[in-house]
Task: structure prediction
Amino acid sequence: MSDNKIQLEPLQPEDKDQFVRDNQAAFNYGALVEFGLRDAHFEEDGEIISRETIENAISTGDAYRIVAGGQKAGGLVVKTDGEWGELVLLFVSPKVHSQGIGYGAWCAVEKRYPGVRTWETVTPYFEKRNIHFYVNRCGFHIVEFFNSHHPDPHDDGGALEGQFPSGMFRFQKIIKQQGDDDGQTA
Result:
């Protein structure tokens, strides 16, 4: 699916509950594919990502529904501050994986926030699809690996101690301005 068919629509209050449930279903899918039913990475009973975590992200960032072909296909939350941005959450319904929807959504984010020059995000070490997506599709670079020997100084929730003891990758994408060395993204 080409990125011009992907739209980001601001999350509406009446869709918040479904957004949370859809996000949880997408995150659970990734963990269950990797670990099966023996997964011990749940943040709350039966959920990889808790309702509280998602609601906190929504309340402190800009939340969008990813719409593909007129249908809700996922969602995302970003935070920005001048030239810095953080992709807090990004999920695509497992029913529409591998159709270019995530990439189209990321392209739409970059277009919507043209002043952001540095984007960051994190993902658990086991999310191979996410690592491929961020590095090979979207142009991010792995810049840090948080683990028991190198904890995330901003993690006040203890993700490495409990939920993801084997680690998290931090990704960064620098978007060069016109007139920089080659005018391309790094």
Summary: The radius of gyration is 16 Å. Strands lie at 6-10, 62-68, 71-81, 84-92, 118-124, 141-146, 168-174. Residues 37-44, 158-163 have pLDDT under 50 and may be disordered. The domain at 3-174 is CATH 3.40.630.30 (Aminopeptidase).
